[in-house]
Design a protein that fits this description.
Radius of gyration: 20 Å
Shape: globular
CATH superfamily of the largest domain: Enolase-like C-terminal domain
Helix content: 25-40%
CATH architecture of the largest domain: Alpha-Beta Barrel
Order of helices and strands: EEEHHHHEHEHEHEHEHEHEHEHEH
Number of helices: 13
Bound molecules: magnesium ion
CATH topology of the largest domain: TIM Barrel
CATH class of the largest domain: Alpha Beta
Distance between the termini: 44 Å
Strand content: 15-25%
Structural class: alpha/beta
Number of domains: 2
């Protein structure tokens, strides 16, 4: 009988977070992001094998740095080749400090970085480590903020000309102006700007502060969206209104999407078992990373609910989303912010759309992408940690 072999441990010696500043795209939030605000942090995990793994966290970079201070003692010396075990150790030992919040967000970036290391150590892309590849390409949908109708038409047409063939418009004046004719005019303008052949999705962004509408508005609006062949209606209700989401899903002629603010796999259980969504949108840079998201996606699949990852993102977050998109059946889209320097401007080889508006899923080891430190230096004060 052959002697079983195993890879020697790859020990974590250092972990660091780099907050991104200066050119965060507008969020469309009622309290808009300023240049000095950070809403993303990149994570780097250094090991004694000389392999470095990278991850991304969607939160204020100062929180990610504080989260790392708490998590570091649990992480240093750990074997980076065991992402699921190590991530679960972090969850289990910190639940009393507010599970689901900053620590869960920070663990997300750590977990993604450990999967990157496992891939680099074994020479395999993360998708293969997750169990296999269902596809080599996936369509990015270009995520854009709502604008007044004339501007909206020009903005989406500009990205259509760049090769995108799926679009999501959201937030901005939609619903917030209390003008249903304006809401419809924005959606009509977007449909005109991209033509009948491109996919269009609409995001009310009801997880914004003090969302003013309820179930009746959402039902009326869903009827309107049907007329423009909108593929899903996202965050149409306040993020905790689970009963209304269940009712809306059953009444709406267009699919209902949501879940971007949920974190931890356990939080998704009632939403999935009660059938609150047609499409679930966990964010791999918030929910707990790839280890957590893969379990959420399988749970969703078994409940007959589609998975389309949320990603108001960095290039490393997109890279994780692409690996996830490869590894599950029925995944046809990834979110891609239109015009974000943190997505388009930090990789050695930026993502490129093919002639069908699709992205090729990287098949190099780990996440399959490489950070360009000189480019990154424009957006973070201390790129040296990378
Ligand atoms: Mg959204």
């Amino acid at each position: 009988m052959p002697t079983p072999t195993r890879l020697a441990p790859v020990r974590i010696v250092r972990v660091a977070a780099a907050p991104l500043f200066g050119e965060s795209p507008k969020g469309g939030w009622s309290n808009e992001i300023r240049p000095e605000d950070s809403i993303h942090a990149l994570i780097a995990i250094h090991t004694d094998a000389g392999i470095t793994g990278y991850g991304s966290v969607f939160t204020d970079g100062r929180l990610a740095q504080a989260g790392l201070k708490v998590l570091e003692p649990l992480l240093i010396g750990e074997n980076a080749l065991e992402p699921e075990r190590v991530t679960e150790k972090l969850h289990q030992n910190t639940f009393w400090m507010g599970r689901g919040g900053t620590l869960t967000h920070t663990i997300s970036g750590i977990d993604i970085a450990m999967w990157d290391i496992l891939g680099k150590a074994t020479g395999l892309p993360v998708s293969q480590l997750l169990g296999g590849n269902y596809r080599t390409k996936v369509k990015p949908y270009c995520s854009l903020l709502m604008e007044e109708p004339a501007l909206m038409r020009d903005v989406v047409a500009g990205y259509h000309a760049k090769g995108f063939r799926a679009f999501k418009i959201g937030w901005g004046p939609f619903g917030r102006a209390h003008d249903t004719r304006l809401d419809e005019a924005i959606v009509r303008a977007a449909r005109e700007g991209i033509g009948a052949d491109s996919q269009l999705f609409v995001d009310a962004g009801a997880s914004d502060a003090h969302w003013p509408h309820g179930l009746k508005w959402a039902m009326r609006t869903a009827e309107m969206l049907k007329d423009y062949n909108v593929g899903w209606f996202e965050e149409a209700l306040k993020p905790d209104a689970i009963d209304d989401y269940c009712d809306l899903r059953r009444a709406s002629p267009v699919p209902i999407a949501g879940g971007e603010v949920l974190t931890r796999r356990q939080s998704f259980m009632p939403w999935l078992s009660r059938g609150a969504f047609d499409i679930i949108q966990p964010d791999v840079t918030k929910v707990g990373g790839i280890s957590e998201q893969r379990r959420i996606v399988w749970m969703a699949q078994d409940h007959g609910i589609r998975y389309v990852g949320h990603g108001w993102n960095t290039a490393l977050g997109v890279a994780a989303d692409l690996q996830m998109a490869a590894a599950f059946p029925g995944v046809d889209l990834v979110e891609f912010i239109g015009g974000s320097p943190y997505v388009d401007g930090i990789l050695a080889e930026p993502f490129v759309l093919d002639e069908n508006g699709d992205l090729t899923i990287p098949d190099k080891p780990g996440l399959g992408v490489e950070i360009d430190r000189d480019k990154l230096a424009k957006y973070t004060p201390d790129p040296g940690i990378f």
